[in-house]
Amino acid sequence: MTDQYAPLRISLGTQLRSGGLGVVQQDEFVETGVNTLVKLAEFIEHESDIVLHLTGSMVGNVPPTDVTSELLRHCVEDRLRERFPKLFAGDAFRHVTYTQWEAWLGLFYGKRVLLFLADDAFSGGEPASPQAGRAAPMLVAEHLALLKPLLGYFTPFADEVALVREVQASLLRYLNRGTHHHDRPCHLPYATLGELFIGRDSFLSELQQKFEAARVAGRWPNQAVCGVGGLGKTQVAVEYALKHRDEYTAVLMVNADTPESLRSGLAGLAGVLHSGLDPATPDDAKERATLDWLQQHPGWLLIVDNADTEAARNEVTRRLAQWADGHVLITARFHQWPKTVEAFDLHVLSFEDAARFLLQATDGTRRVSKDDEEQARQLAGDDLDGLCLALEQAAAYIREREISFAEYRRRWTENDKAVRTWADKAVMQYHSELTESLSVATTWLTTFRELTPAAQSLLQLFAWLAPAPIPQSLVDHPELEQQLQSACRVGPAALRRAGPPPDSTNEDGGPALEASLSHPTADHAAEADIESALAVLRRYSFLSRRPGDPTDSAGRVHRVVQLITRERLDHDRQQATLTAMLQVANANVKGDAADVRTWPTLDPLRPHLMMLIDHAERAQIDEPTSRLMGELGTLLWAKALHTQAEDLEKRALALDERHYGPVAPQVATRLNNLAATLQATNRLAEAEPLMRRALDIFRASLRDEHPNTLDVAENYDILRAAMK
User: Fold this and answer.
1) In the chain, at which end, N or C, are there fewer CB atoms within 10 A of the end residue's CB?
2) What does the alpha-carbon distance between residue 366 and residue 397 come to, in Å, rounded to a whole number?
3) What is the DSSP track for 80-120?
4) Residues with Cβ within 8 Å of residue 154, at least 6 apart in sequence
5) pLDDT of residue 292 exceeding 60
6) Both 355 and 326 in a single domain?
């Protein structure tokens, strides 16, 4: 607050200190030769829990331009711009005063900002005149208009007595959230990630906009944040609740992973909402007490977390009528909900945001290298594909062992399964309220058990594809359904046990995961149809679309889900499912790849063909791998992507030489195609011996008048002519 209320500010500080709180006022940061704003920012970031922002009619002074510029460098201007786009629209930020900056810095560093507004805030005299070399200060009304979407609730006060009363009440609500009983109960078993909550501002804004639209229409909304496990759905809901808690009569959260958990959670809330409740009260009576409170205090926010199974979803759906007096926010892997529930798909973080998270989360604890930024980007994108839980797990693992990004990437890419199964709830925030630690692998298995046998088998087939949109043409081809039915005939020994026997604990100290999944059997083969299996995968968000994906694609499977799915298969099942998917791809590659009329079909298949070829080479599956290499090489040659075509053609040649022998006709075909690619890049001397060898093989194994021999002979004559 400006000097307008200096006596009131001093009195408030004295009374708060007498209650055992540490209070530092803004004018205590003024020090000759020191940037006041940077010092304020450092204090708020590292030492402050709460920012009390008192606003009256006077706005104070704008810092000199160089002072503001140094603050922007300290906080990283791009991050400030991303967090507060409206503040940086035009030049609004250049008019922010010292006092106003304290609120923005509090929000930037994820601190609780409590805004108290004097009754005369808009009735002051003339705006302060700008000092020499400084911009005009931002008006109170403009400052509050920018803050309101972020803070929501302003507390008015008329005098010192009212201010002290309101400040003490607000502090009590904050300090005792979830444990004491007051006019605005708050029960959240998670804390904010603060500045590590990155890349979700637009999603929170969309939730808020939809919420406001429902309120304008005269109803409380039911909303669901949906997506595959590990996207950070719970944390998004928590951050939304903390950001908007003052807009609700209460902010509450219950776990709904089973109907029993939901009932127990609702019963447990009774102790939060009713201070005089006897702990010995039966759970059904506690549950009724909770529902009574919700009906008597409309306008609350209830987060229903982890409604990830069909039984859990049905229980939540059944109770929606009981929760008609407030805002219900559900987190679930299910996307299909009744029409009364508005579902929002949460997507992975952008690679830039994911890399920034890794850099910040491991700052000061990882082994530093010159290429940290590039390694973080590759880990965030190429390896973890922006999956929040995988990012949090990676950061915690790196902090715990004080290793570099490069070393973590090495362990991840070299199939060190301990990297994917390791978890420590003491240092990971995503599941801090649970008794056990959850890793990416265990999170995946939890939902995999809910799939039908056909959906499990289809996921195992899709695990060999690229983490890219799957063409609808591949899904519609009858070969996929035939291979799915074959996969469903595999017996129960197909999946490898994920941990020790069920009566022991795993290496993470948590309960062991059983391997007794719903294994496909011959009985399920007749029931395996693509349409229903796809529907189940979409229902549990294993198959989803991202913004910008083709509308005619069937969706995509996340890279980490694919990786863990493959790892959970034993060797025989790996070979069987990979071979099956190769056959499906082979059936989809028809016609002349050099003919542009085939490109609309082949182009969407390219990333999947490349991925299948890579897997097949490592598994030493020669056919139809060689044919797919050749067809893809021809496509790339026709598109003048000669470097990529040459690589594939060389690999196809080596594979066919090993499989058929050095003088087989198949080898001659590979030699001819490789020579044509070298010729297209004007490497005639390299192409000539390959083409001559191809011609010799065809003449020896086929007749001189055979079409293949005649074609290669003509190609060789053209090549020889070009060399003269």
Assistant:
1) C
2) 10
3) HHHH-TTTTSTTGGGG--HHHHHHHHHHHTT-EEEEEEETT
4) 115, 116, 117, 144, 148
5) yes
6) no
Beta bridge partner(s), residue 556: 544
Res 129: pLDDT: 55
Residue 454 counted as domain residue: yes
CATH number at residue 291: 3.40.50.300
pTM: 0.57
Backbone phi and psi for residue 661, each to the nearest 5 degrees, phi listed first: 100, 160
The whole-angstrom separation of Cα 632 and Cα 646 is 11
Lowest mean pLDDT among 317-331, 492-506, 627-641: 492-506
Distance (Å, whole) CA 95 – CA 81:
15
CA distance 182 to 169: 9
Phi, psi of 424 (to 5 degrees): -145, 105
Which pLDDT belongs to residue 52? 83
Q: What is the pLDDT of residue 172?
A: 58
Two structure tokens written together for 1: 């607050």
Q: What is the DSSP letter of 380?
A: I
Per-residue pLDDT band at 131 (split at 50, 70, 90): low
Which one, of 390, 329, 335, lies nearest residue 358 by Cα? Answer: 390
Question: What pLDDT score was predicted for residue 575?
Answer: 93
Residue 555 region by backbone torsions, left for phi larger than 0, else alpha for psi between -120 and 50, else beta: left
Long-range contacts of 637-645 (CB under 8 A, 24+ apart): 637/594, 637/673, 637/676, 637/677, 637/680, 638/593, 638/594, 638/596, 640/680, 642/677, 642/680, 642/681, 645/677
Same domain, 639 and 718: yes
Distance CA 42, CA 212 (A): 35
* Among candidate residues 541, 87, 79, 108, the one with its CA nearest the CA of residue 353: 79
Whether the bond into 600 is cis, omega within 30 of 0: no
Pick from 11-25, 99-113, 591-605, 672-686: least confident: 11-25
Please indicate, yes or no, whether residues 165 and 16 belong to a single structural domain of this protein. Answer: yes
The chain-wide mean pLDDT, for the chain, equals 82
pLDDT confidence bin for 549, thresholds 50/70/90: confident
Q: What CATH number is given to the structural domain containing 656?
A: 1.25.40.10
- Select from 345, 376, 395 the last residue of a domain: 345
Same domain, 496 and 573: yes
Count structural domains, the chain: 5
Q: At what angle do helices 599-619 and 571-588 cross, to 10 degrees?
A: 160
Provide the domain limits for residue 722: 597-724
